Amino acid sequence: MAAIHVNDLGMTFRAPLREEGLRAAANSLFKREHRQIEAVRQVSFDLDPGEVVGFLGPNGAGKTTTLKILSGILQPSRGDVRVLAHVPWRRERAFLRQIAMVRGSRPIGGPGELTVLDSLRFQKVIYEVSDNAFANALAELRRMLDLDPILNRQVRALSLGERMRAGLAMSLVYRPRVLFLDEPTLGLDVSAVGAMRRFIARYARESGATILLTSHYMADVESLCQRILLIDKGSLRYDGPLARLSASLTPFKVLNVEVTVGTGPVWEEFGEVTEASADRATLRVHRDRAPAATARLLAELPVTDLSVGDPPLESVIDRVYREGVA
Fold first, then answer.
1. What is the pLDDT of residue 26?
2. What is the pairing mode between strands 272-276 and 235-241?
3. Per-residue H/E/C for the chain
4. Mean pLDDT, residues 69-94 taken together
């Protein structure tokens, strides 16, 4: 059975509408006009237990609305949704004890006067975690999230990176089976981002939890997810392996070549030049011809460095938004 089942999901909001000016503002007090905004339309997908899936889309595409529906915050206008066999918006106790949602914009809630340890103990009471299970979870989270330096500090005194670690610990202390992560590395520095990615990957591997991740940082997706869902203007545009999307939309490889100074090769002879100088160049070569082009470069030029790779994921995703997926 799928951990998350979504079929024909739709969400329509009713938004007020009025013209500019004081007269229009006064008239709106007595007679309001509205318009229907379709935030999500005909979205369907299934996530298996243990999957880590990237959920991508531009701002306003419907990502956060979908996450709020899956976590039970919103009730959709239509569609069939099951998370761990529960209807999320019924907010059943058995459901809430098995899911968690962590938002990078608001990583931790609750009274700011409490210490991190007191906040974790508060979660223990709310979710009825046994003493033994809490002790084991706390020991694991202290090790995986490096919590010891912040356990006895007040929540309001934490930095953004520390609040993110504390928020994750509060969400995971009761060992949820489904985890929704909305921009988990938002605003973090390079070291904190790396630590967060390593933690998410390790938690998914060791706990077997199903994770749905949204992020505008493509490196988060590349390092954590093999499958992605692309949503744009409320509709699902792609559902499948990240590698297949890149291969289907970008039928070329990127070759970065560096040669001995003073060689002065004619780079156009080896591929489409996107950037070049006297001793280095970036070339675009069709995937089928990349092995031959690489062999020719090594045979004909004094190559000091050569790398072959796919185009940046950002360019692939941008092309999906502009052109769609066949």
1. 65
2. unpaired
3. CCCEEEEEEEEEEEEEECCCCHHHHHHCCCCCEEEEEEEEEEEEEEECCCCEEEEECCCCCCHHHHHHHHCCCCCCCEEEEEECCECHHHCCHHHHCCEEEEECCECCCCCCCCEHHHHHHHHHHHCCCCHHHHHHHHHHHHHHHCCHHHCCCEHHHCCHHHHHHHHHHHHHCCCCCEEEEECCCCCCCHHHHHHHHHHHHHHHHHHCCEEEEECCCHHHHHHHCCEEEEEECCEEEEEEEHHHHHHHHCCEEEEEEEECCCCCCCHHHCCEEEEECCCEEEEEEEHHHHHHHHHHHHHHCCEEEEEEECCCHHHHHHHHHHHCCC
4. 94
> CA-to-CA distance for 110 and 83, rounded, in angstroms?
25
**Which residues, other chains included, contact 30 with Cβ-Cβ below 8 Å and sequence gap of 6+?**
none
Per the CB < 8 A criterion, the answer to whether 102 and 179 are in contact is yes
Model confidence at 278, in pLDDT bands (50, 70, 90)? Answer: confident
pTM tops 0.70:
yes
Exposed, middle or buried: residue 15 (CB in 10 Å: 0-12, 13-18, 19+)? exposed
Residues 215-222 have a mean pLDDT of: 82
CA distances to 36, 64, 187, 272, 322 from 58, in Å = 21, 11, 18, 30, 11
| Residue 220 scores a pLDDT above 80 | yes
